[in-house]
Amino acid sequence: TPACYDGKLFVGSYDNNLYCLNAADGEFEWKYPTEGGIPGRPAVDTENVYVGSEDGRLHVITQRNGKLDWAHFTDGPVRSSPKIAEGHVFVGSDDRYLHAVNLATRRLSWRFEPSGPIRSTPFVTQEMIYFGSEDGEFSCLDFRGKIKWRYKSKRAITSSPVVVGDTVYFSSMDNMVYALDSKSGYVIWRFRLGKGSISSPYVLE
């Protein structure tokens, strides 16, 4: 999925490159090469673009010129899309960890290990971090990386969650769409699909 910021469009590709295009006319501005495919959506702030790659790194690229500013290394492909919040960038990896990297120090603040690779993109609220993993576990953490609650589905949760009010929504490869209480993990409802889903829900209020 591409990201649009300040008139620029950033999109990753399985040709291993992150592209920056002019959002108005599609004119090429720059491309940044990694050593693996880029399946996730870039995260963007005022200066940098953050993107994971199957080369096992989170690449932080300067917006204005497409040059590498810094990188965070994991021990597996990074297929999760990064999320910026509370002075950190949060990203999952196939190394089975959710990584929380401090943007000021550029160092790992903590990492949390469920029991499967994390390809889901974390959803971050003012208090909690929500994400799924490929073993079917859905986790809610606080900002110290401590577990608040877990929910276990029967198959992989590649879908990225969305929190609206006190409810967190996600789909699973077990053919279900789930709505859980965001504070306790209690199942509010679930809906059976015809097949498993990796699609991320979108809530229209």
Could you name the key traits of this structure?
205 residues; mainly beta; 4-stranded antiparallel sheet
Describe this structure in words.
This protein is an all-beta fold and 205 residues long. The chain is 0% helix and 46% strand. It contains no helices and 20 strands. The protein has strands at 3-5, 8-12, 17-22, 28-33, 43-44, 48-52, 57-62, 68-73, 83-85, 88-92, 98-102, 108-112, 123-124, 129-132, 137-141, 147-152, 162-164, 167-171, 176-181, 187-192. The strands form five sheets. Strands 1-2-3-4 form a four-stranded antiparallel beta sheet, with no helix packed on it. It has a four-stranded antiparallel beta sheet with strand order 5-6-7-8, with no helix packed on it. Strand 2 and strand 3 (17-22) form a beta hairpin. The two termini are 23 Å apart. The model has no long low-confidence stretch (mean pLDDT 96).
Question: Quick recap of the structure?
Answer:
This protein is mostly beta strands. It has strands at residues 3-5, 8-12, 17-22, 28-33, 43-44, 48-52, 57-62, 68-73, 83-85, 88-92, 98-102, 108-112, 123-124, 129-132, 137-141, 147-152, 162-164, 167-171, 176-181, 187-192.
Q: Tell me the total number of β-strands.
A: 20
Give the assembly state of these chains.
single chain
Mean pLDDT over the full residue set: 96
User: Uncertain spans, ≥5 residues at pLDDT below 50?
Assistant: none
Strand order of the largest sheet: 1-2-3-4
Distance between the termini: 23 Å
Number of helices: 0
Helix fraction by DSSP (H/I, runs of at least 4): under 10%
**Radius of gyration (Å):** 17 Å
- Please tell me what the overall shape is: globular
How large is the share of residues in beta strands?
over 45%
Classification by helices and strands: mainly beta
Task: Give the biggest sheet.
Answer: 4 strands, antiparallel
